[in-house]
Specification:
The protein is α+β, with helices and mostly antiparallel strands and 318 residues long. It is built from eight helices and twelve strands. It has two domains: 2-138, Gcn5-related N-acetyltransferase (GNAT) (Aminopeptidase, 3-Layer(aba) Sandwich); 151-306, Aminopeptidase (3-Layer(aba) Sandwich). β2 and β3 form a beta hairpin. α2 (37-45) crosses α6.
Length: 318
């Protein structure tokens, strides 16, 4: 077996890598939310200024039997790397996963990283190998969240009359950018991360613009925000991605700023985003810390149900 770096200029190799990733993950995780081929292609062929990424594959003969991805943040968290390893079911328990892990750890170490983190998701009904694998490699749990799924349409929640809905698709309009950036940075600073020792990502206008531009190549990006009528102050936002061509959405951040809590703005903003979706979108995924009772309750009241437990794990590679 040979561990190779994926040649991101070769479209057939990109396809094969993505197909193996999809098959390997789906075997254990029927509800997994995976990058579509289009989203993967954008990430793999248009390097980001803020993250360096490497894709590896384990090859036997001419067959790709396992794949891995390594992501190194370049702006903050310079001691950390993140990785994901997936092996086709028929090739498991033969050391392929460990060989891929060793290869990502070697690359992370060579770049000065001392910790390697990853997400391990465990289906509620299917016994997967991910957690035992991560533990065998010395990774320990630092944080966990529930992965929830809702079928659309969900119960709709009207926005509190003291607020008006401000919604956009794609790039945030210039007149809202300062308020939106402040909320995005508040979210990054506030989001619960358990024992994960990470610096919050700080967005400025250039970084937001770069993220919007990249995301829009593969996703329909929708934002619903609430603005208080009395003084025009923004109280919260909710961010939703719909991969091009997919029949599902992916609920990203929802934040209600501290002084605006207690008005059910979270539920109203989410449901406003879902109500605006075309009828072809039939479900939405989200992740919530089960200890974040307000958000967990908002989600289950909207119709979300837990389908997986997601563990953020980390190993020391110094
Ligand atoms: C997890 C996964 C990558 C393991 O791949 P693999 O090639 O079978 O892994 P290895 O053969 O190198 O196993 C390394 C060690 O992990 C542990 N392990 C792996 N699968 C296990 C299982 N099903 N049960 C218990 N331990 C397991 C063992 O300690 C194993 O060493 P051993 O075989 O000497 O006992 C593979 O099962 C997979 O792709 N699962 C779906 C995706 C996923 O969950 N990835 C992990 C998130 S990063």
């Amino acid at each position: 077996m040979d561990i190779q770096e994926l040649d991101t200029t070769d479209p057939a190799a990109l396809r094969a890598w993505h197909e193996v990733m999809e098959q390997a993950v789906r075997a254990d995780r029927p509800h997994a939310l995976l990058a579509t081929y289009e989203a993967f292609e954008v990430t793999a062929t248009a390097p980001s200024t803020y993250y360096s990424r490497t894709w590896l594959q384990a090859v036997e003969g001419a067959e790709v039997v396992g794949v891995a991805e390594l992501e190194l943040p370049l702006q903050e968290n310079l001691d950390v790397g993140w990785c994901e390893v997936s092996v086709l079911p028929q090739h498991r328990r033969r050391g392929v996963g460990r060989a891929l892990w060793d290869a990502v750890a070697e690359r992370g170490h060579a770049d000065g990283r001392t910790r390697l983190g990853g997400e391990v998701s465990v289906d509620l009904a299917v016994a997967g190998a991910g957690y035992a694998f991560a533990t065998a490699l010395g990774a320990v749990e630092k944080h966990h969240e529930d992965h929830l799924l809702a079928d659309l349409p969900v119960t709709s929640t009207a926005i509190d009359p003291a607020y008006e809905l401000v919604a956009w698709q794609g790039r945030c309009p210039d007149e809202h950018r300062a308020a939106y950036l402040a909320m995005r940075n508040q979210m990054n600073a506030d989001v619960p991360t358990g024992e994960l020792d990470l610096e919050a990502e700080v967005l400025d206008d250039a970084r937001l613009a770069s993220s919007e531009e990249r995301l829009m190549k593969a996703y329909d990006v929708r934002v619903a925000a609430a603005r208080r009528r009395s003084d025009g102050v923004f109280g919260g936002y909710s961010l939703l991605f719909v991969p091009h061509g997919a029949d599902y959405g992916w609920q990203d951040d929802t934040l209600v700023m501290p002084e605006h809590r207690g008005h059910r703005l979270g539920a109203a903003l989410k449901s406003a985003n879902y109500a605006g979706l075309p009828a072809t979108i039939t479900s939405v995924h989200t992740w919530t810390d089960p200890q974040n009772t307000a958000m967990h309750h908002t989600n289950t009241a909207l119709g979300f149900r837990v389908v997986e437990h997601m563990y953020e794990v980390e190993a020391v590679i110094a």
